[in-house]
Amino acid sequence: MVDFYQKLPKIELHAHLNGSLSNRALEELRELKYGTDRTKEGDDGFYKILNGQLLSLEECFQKFRYAHDLTDRRESLELATKRVVEEFARDNVVYLELRTTPKSTANMSKREYLITVLDVLRKVPEYQPSILVKLLPSIDRSKGVLEGEENVTLAIELAALYPGMIVGLDLSGNPFGTKFDDFVPSLRRARDHGFRLALHCGEFDDEQEVKEMFELGVDRIGHGTFITDIEFRSNAA
Ligand SMILES: [Zn+2]
């Protein structure tokens, strides 16, 4: 059965770059940054979490923190992007929308971050012709409105340099303590520049927020856990 699903051509519309890294890829990135000596960096639980069968929610978040730490420079981000595309292609995904929040680290700016990812994706037709990959830069709600604005500006600028590769804007991140309404002007600006909107919607129980998202218009709904049937029917109509 697994074999059947693997061979079936698929589209993947909800892939976060860091969240799609396989254990093998994480291990490779870890070695790239810290070398092969597993004792050198002390036991911070990396291999324990990697080998864990059932991870708690806290351990899952810890795994994302490792992924962020391991992709904080161009070389490793490049490798991470390549591995994610290769692995989706191996699973016979023929169309992939990849999301990622541009991050500024000690080693690269947000702009360099996105350019690194885009440069890898631009070469995909040469080395992985079976898969078509598009990028959705993300706005991380927990980082605030100004950072979101910055990401939209970057997406607009880079869309001109990488035609046809950036198809939308994603809104994600921890929603608690943030107001969707605050991000609407940035999202509208993105849409005015031709980007589709992929919103993480209904991740917690907030009817009003779901309503506001539908009012703005959403092209891809992320997760949608708390969207009720009634909300969906009345808003999608
Ligand atoms: Zn998501």
TrEMBL record:
InterPro entries: A_deaminase_dom, Ado/ade_deaminase, Metal_Hydrolase. The keyword Hydrolase applies. The keyword Protein biosynthesis does not apply. Keywords: Hydrolase, Metal-binding, Nucleotide metabolism, Zinc. It holds the Pfam family A_deaminase. GO terms for biological process: adenosine catabolic process; inosine biosynthetic process; nucleotide metabolic process. Residues 9-226 form the Adenosine deaminase domain. Its cofactor is Zn(2+). Gene3D superfamilies: Metal-dependent hydrolases. It catalyses: N(6)-methyl-AMP + H2O + H(+) = IMP + methylamine. SUPFAM superfamilies: Metallo-dependent hydrolases (SSF51556). Belongs to the metallo-dependent hydrolases superfamily. Adenosine and AMP deaminases family. PANTHER family: ADENOSINE DEAMINASE, ADENOSINE DEAMINASE-LIKE PROTEIN. This is Adenosine deaminase domain-containing protein. It comes from Anopheles albimanus (New world malaria mosquito).
